[in-house]
Design a protein that fits this description.
This protein is an alpha/beta fold and 149 residues long. The protein folds into two domains: 26 residues; 109 residues, Oxidized Rhodanese, domain 1. It is built from seven helices and seven strands; from the N terminus they run H-H-E-H-E-H-E-E-H-E-H-E-H-E. The strands form two sheets. Strands 1-6-5-2-4 form a five-stranded parallel sheet. Strands 3-7 form a two-stranded antiparallel sheet. Strand 5, helix 6 and strand 6 form a beta-alpha-beta unit. The longest helix is centred in the N-terminal third of the chain and has 23 residues. About 9% of the residues have low confidence.
Length: 149
């Protein structure tokens, strides 16, 4: 019993020490980086995204989730403008779908944690009309809007 308590203590110390060190060493945490990305991002709500998808056929809706996430979350937003470019490939593949730096782009993920990073990256790449749908796929699906596998 004492060995398992000691082991648990040592494991928690080894896991928590780097986190505490990062917070005091000036190294930004993921939450801090996300907050910074959100400051530079334009957010849109479900109603606005639906209107854009209905009215702006030249816009690009980028789902940054992986194929496995899309499959496990029961699909993606059903829109002709929707393309899947996983977050790790965004910088390499966006030029294939957004031919102009002025192309209207909306990015989304499952629930809005990663999409601000994607929006910030696109802006750094020179795209000037980038928005983040922070409700993500979960918000779209919860609103009862069309999804497809």
């Amino acid at each position: 019993m004492k060995k398992s308590l000691l082991l648990a203590y040592l494991l928690s110390f080894s896991v928590l020490t780097p986190i505490a060190h990062a917070e005091t060493s000036g190294i930004p945490t993921g939450a801090q980086l996300q907050a910074a990305a959100e400051k530079n991002t334009t957010f849109i709500e479900t109603k606005e995204l639906k209107k854009m998808l209905d009215d702006e056929l030249d816009m690009v809706l980028i789902d940054i989730r992986t194929a496995t996430e899309i499959q496990n979350m029961d699909g993606k937003i059903d829109a002709s403008q929707n393309v899947n470019i996983p977050r790790g490939w965004l910088e390499f593949r966006v030029q294939r779908v957004a031919l102009s730096k002025e192309t209207p782009i909306v990015v989304y993920c499952g629930g809005g944690l990663r999409s601000p990073f994607a929006a910030e990256t696109l802006q750094k790449m020179g795209y000037t009309n980038v928005k983040n749908y922070s409700a993500g796929f979960f918000g779209w699906k919860q609103a009862g809007l069309p999804v497809k596998p």
